[in-house]
Amino acid sequence: MRRSLTVSERLDPSRRITLLAAGLVVVLVGLLLAFISWNGIQLFTASHVPIAEVLSATWAPDAGAATSFGILPFILGTISVMAVAAIIAAPLSIGLAIFMAEVAPPWARAITRPAMEIFVGIPSVVYGWLGITILVPFLRENGSGLGFTVGFSWFAGSLVLALMILPTISSIAYDALLAIPADLRSASLALGTTRWQTILHILLPAGATALTTAVVLGMMRAAGEALAVQMVIGNRPVIPTSLTQPMTTLTSQITLDMGNTVSGEPWNEALWTMGLVLLVMSLGFVALVRVLGRRRVVGA
Amino acid sequence: MRRAILIDRMATVVLWAIAGLVILILGAIIVHFLLAAVGTISLGFLVGDPSDTTVGGIGPILWNSLYILVLTLAITVPLGILGGIYLAEYAGEGPVTTAIRFCQELISSVPSIVVGMFGLALFVGATHWGFTALSGSLALTVFNLPLMARLAEQAIRAVPDDERQASLALGTTKWASIRHVVLPLAIPGIVTGIILTAGRIFGEAAALIFTSGLSTPTNYDFLNLNVTDPRSPWSPFHPATTLSVYIWKLNSEGLGAFVRQIADTSAAVLVIMVLGFNLGARGLGRALQRRITGA
């Protein structure tokens, strides 16, 4: 049973000071939500740009009298580049997690585990730099048969992102697989199944929710990643239609335009609206992870 | 049955191949940068002036990176450890604890570019500081503080309860036992956490473009110790491009052979430093563990 705190415990200065330090994060989150939301709605409230225009596909912020602030290409761009990155990274990273948890002999695990941590730590500009100096020229020179024209493309963006989220997903997936009770494995193997049958019919179903969570967290990282994507994606504000062609994302456009615009003009306000959209997307991911987490507890 | 065994063998081969591929890619990345570094990294480059158009140099930029790193750690480490102590030792279950944990989770999910925009609005705009090293450090604090608090909390929770009870049984106050018994035992874990965080801070760029800015003074006079003078390298009140931001900036300036070589070398420096942080965290954590536990 939990007892409530006595008066002296409540007034304990060390308790209060540490509480202030821990509670600072709540203040920061409050300020962040307030600042981004306030700036994000200025496009509608101060510049009176109609919502229908903002949701349109035409991005022409400097077209004189015919300006249009449609951010649909950026939203669809972010979603499509993220989706393809997840499609590439999910099987590889879950495969790697299964390898580390079930197949790897101790010496191989001693290599893969630290390698994952180093992988996670490589800064995103480094991935972007590799993308722009190696991947993009490679696609341009060897991919013309497949339709790559300039190399900068949806595919290049997704591939760089896939590489970045691979260690994230596999680390979380590995922990999830380790958390599955050993009894399940032994029971299955005792029935004479092969290791792969146990993985496929016992471990993957038992860990399905946790593995989904791992992929969702990887997608969240992909959606928010800015510089690496900006460097390889080509930054063309069109609705994405082809993996081989340049496109753009919310983060790329914010990165590129923020410095060229002046606070208070609609172009600048549109960038803040994109920031708000990104924030709402990441809150959506947090909610999704929470829902998945609850399902895991109920199912256990 | 034979078919099942065959499939099992094939699956094993595929899993080995995936692991091999991933390790190969990582190894290739590291070797690529180590090779790029051989012959191009020199002391002259590391301390040189970026506006030098024959050799290039990253002196002031490297200084900015280290300066922002130290400033950010100076803010986040004490606050993070205090917050971690609260969460591990004092927090019960209730709305306050729930709110803190929820906000920690929320911040870790916010894209760093959005944190950069928040920093632009608050630390650059509202304060009228403009693009400064301090604005950059505060933006980095926003998402590293919760991380640090969480790392400290885990390290403190990992200290066995016996230690606390033995200390309390001697009649010490709760704070004294935290301060003199629990915290020293948690130090190895906390130090490992700090160095790993340092690697992240060192590599971060998206949150800094809008806060510490894309420019830097190049003529640092290290004898100028006046911290309110924006020309002093010791002052937090001047724009401060970091190494990561510099690499990103170079890519948008067109890829001439010279620019490319500078960016390659800078990226190599960045990768080597981040690798150093990672290996350092492991080594130091293990060494401290041995010393403190006396094993």
Mean pLDDT of chain A: 89
The computed structural class of chain B is mainly alpha
Order of helices and strands of chain B: HHHHHHHHHHH
For the largest beta-sheet of chain A, the strand count, sense and barrel status come to: 2 strands, antiparallel
Strand content of chain B: under 5%
Shape of chain B: globular
Strand content of chain A: under 5%
The largest sheet of chain B is: none
Oligomer: heterodimer
The span between the termini of chain A is 25 Å
Kindly state the percentage of residues in helix of chain B. Answer: over 70%
Q: How many beta-strand elements of chain B?
A: 0
**Which two chains share the most extensive interface?**
A-B, 79 and 89 residues
Number of strands of chain A: 2
- Mean pLDDT across every amino acid position of chain B: 87
Uncertain stretches of chain A: none
Distance between the termini of chain B: 51 Å
In short:
The complex is a heterodimer of chains A (300) and B (295). Chain A has 300 residues and is mainly α.
How would you describe what is shown here?
- The complex is a heterodimer of chains A (300) and B (295).
- By secondary structure, chain A is mainly alpha-helical.
- Helices cover 73% and strands 1% of the residues of chain A.
- Chain A has a two-stranded antiparallel sheet with strand order 1-2.
- Chain A is globular and about 75 Å long.
- The relative contact order of chain A is 0.14.
- Chain B has helices at 2-37, 43-47, 59-90, 95-109, 112-126, 133-157, 161-169, 174-203, 206-209, 243-251, 257-293.
- Chain B is globular, with a radius of gyration of 23 Å.
- The mean pLDDT of chain B is 87.
- In chain B, helix 1 (2-37) crosses helix 11 and helix 8 (174-203) runs antiparallel to helix 11.
- The longest helix of chain B is centred in the last third of the chain and has 37 residues, at 257-293.
- At the A-B interface, helix 2, helix 5, helix 6, helix 7 and helix 8 of A face helix 1, helix 3, helix 4, helix 5 and helix 6 of B.
